[in-house]
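Human:
I keep going back and forth on a fold encoding question. Comparing notes only helps if you start from a blank page. Show me how you would write down a chain together with its backbone fold. Write it directly below this note and I will take it from there.

Assistant:
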Amino acid sequence: MCYAAVSTHLVVNGSLTRPLPVLCSVRQGCPMSPLLLSLYLEPLCRSIIADRLIHGFVRSPYRVKLLAYAGDVTLFCSSPGEVCRAVAHVRRFCASSGASVSWTKSSGSWVGLWRRTPSVFAGPTWSLEPPRYLGVPLSCARSSSIFWSQRVSKLRDCVWSWNALDLSVFSWARVCNVYLASRLGYFLQVLPCSRTQIARIHRVFATFVWKSTYERTIRTNLFHYFANGGLHLSHMFARQLVWRVAFLREVQHPFLAHCVATFLKDELSGVVVSTVYDTPLFIWGFYKEVASAFHLLLPTFSLEFIYGSSRRKLYWAIVDLLCPVPLYRSLFAADPGRDVLVRVMRMPLEFKVKDFFFRLHTGTLPVRVWLRDRGFWVAFNNFNCKLCPEEEKSIMRFCLVGTLSPFGTLFSASFVGTSTCLRGPYGFCRLGRMRRSLGIPWFWLVCTPYG
């Protein structure tokens, strides 16, 4: 597990330089960086853990003296003397290893009742508010409503900065999952979040995907997988339930296991078996959400399924439980062609074509009848088509317009199927097999009526 004759390249003005030898350390992003950093900090951590005069945070019979992740080290002390001894260990390690501590970036927090709370003590600055650990504000561990309100406001501002790009609904959903949902999920794994805030997040996601101020269809349709007629949009509440369940079933540290047995013994008596007697009167925050997650899932799923299934399988099971089958898919559940959205997403087409097909498939094309049914204003209350005296519907644009018979002939000749297949979403999907000699005229015809 060691390097030998390591070299690297740099990109300067778009071109690679000559090989540069790496004589010490490793570059950022190297797979060995976390391992080497853990080995480097191991003597410091062991010296603090072995010090009997540093008690740390004690919850009988377990205690925690420090937490170390990458280059961040958090120390727990129960007296000013322990703080001085811990800082002395850090200074001794820096003197012998050549490391250095950025005291300007280091901070301390006086948690609990202290006789004196100086702002500067033993090097770092101190405050009465819990600090931020790895970017997570620990002050929001009990009440996080203000924090999530600020995150939703920032999320809405970030969404509006993306609207200038021309992408399809499939790409917008992927942007939500990769950039927006991942940022929120980092905090959602450890901080409690109410259903109201999650509903606000889903509202931002839905309007962002539709690029509109309102939602074209029921929101739950977007969370389904592509094969079920959705956009694979991240369901934050389902992910929250999965993370809470995973915390309880995958806990291994003795201190965390003791906390679970203490706080959840009464709430989850059928899941957690414990002999701890100092049970609190009530629980809140993160542990309350863990108990609520099991209370929601146990009436539907068995313990064998909850503990035996993977996170991905459990997530999609929860999505199917919370989100009903879309109406535009329920009537054709037994028909073939369920992967139509997957095939459309992979086709090398313009984003407008993909958007048009998805709206046609979900029944959200802004035709006159659709606008009337949803209470939108239509000029002169005229709901008929401009080309014929029939009401303007999505299906009649392609099958029932008599003045477009030349185009209808070309449209029907472009496919192997017949025009009767256009009556349903899956029937329309069966027309996706075109003859190679005709190229792709049907996409041009589909986009022509609505620009």
The first helix runs from residue 33 to 50.
